[in-house]
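Thread: Modeling a multi-component assembly for a lab meeting

Hi all, long-time lurker, first post. My supervisor asked me to bring a structural picture of a complex we are working on to next week's group meeting, and I have zero experience with this. I have the sequence lines for every component (338 residues in total). Could someone generate the structure of the whole assembly? Inputs are pasted exactly as I received them:
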Amino acid sequence: MTTPDSALAYRRIFHHEEHVMGTVVTLDLFDESMPPKWTLTPIVEEAIGVLHAADEMFSTWKDTSCISRIRRGELSLDDAPVEISIVLERCRKARETSRGWFDPWAMPGGFDPTGLVKGWAAQQSLNVLQRADVKGAIVNAAGDIASFGGPQMDQRFRIGIADPAHPQQLACVVETPGAIATSGTYERGAHLIDPHSGLPATRAASATVVGTDLSLADALATALVIAGKQALTMFNDLSDYEGLVIADDGTFHMSPGFPIAKL
Amino acid sequence: MKVTVSKAKITKVSIAAIDDGGNPRSVSIDQYAIPILQQEALRAQSANIQGVSGASYTSAGFAQSLQSALSLLGL
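Re: Modeling a multi-component assembly
Sure thing. I ran the full set together rather than chain by chain. Output:
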């Protein structure tokens, strides 16, 4: 067990829970001392606003969202806001990197970037928090986490991975390089679609991907839980990203550089 | 959820039964998971973590998540 030196550890100076995107997103800021409220408040409000804007634009549950209008053929990609083309480009890259295991174009009902958007939104929100001039920040979008800095100088944030068999217990602890995303069906049932069959399917109990950007990590975690441990080879030629698969039998499988820490 | 903190260590986490609108997990959560969550939040605190990564929960599921319990601890 590592215990932080309390003299060096930063304090959690801010915590917020926002109901958005059908879930709760938590924002935490760490520093030695509390910055003045007048500098912090507008930045935090903007970071929260980013999440709601992404929800309005990308929710497939809202009939009026841009993505719903695109799926119905009412809005062309040329007329859509710039965020749509940014996410589209991320989706293309994630499809290529995952060797087709993440494929928003193969989803029933038309183009569906849901597997990447929550991570993208949390990363955008974190990027706003960079301006807060604090030592560390964490945006946790229902288990997909974007962060910078750490709990004390020269230390990375430690993130517990939920045990898929007992989600309120930890399976292991990871020292995050910034972004960490986990996919599985144990919270909301069989909602993950195998792009090769168009049917719900997973080949692992959960999959976790760490890296530098949460939109790609989120998409790759989705791909990895659908594809199973065989797809860990995708990390061979992908620098800055690593993967962990917890198989249905509870065994751990990970790419060589996965930053697992002692529980 | 109610957390009792003494000298920056949690000594007790108590969670009221939650009506989460028909989530199939809710029945087992009320019966079994709340005591587990109390125990696991304490254990997670000793693991010195600042967050939990896992499959996405719904708004209703958040209240019963380890992340939610940890948030209350001020980690």
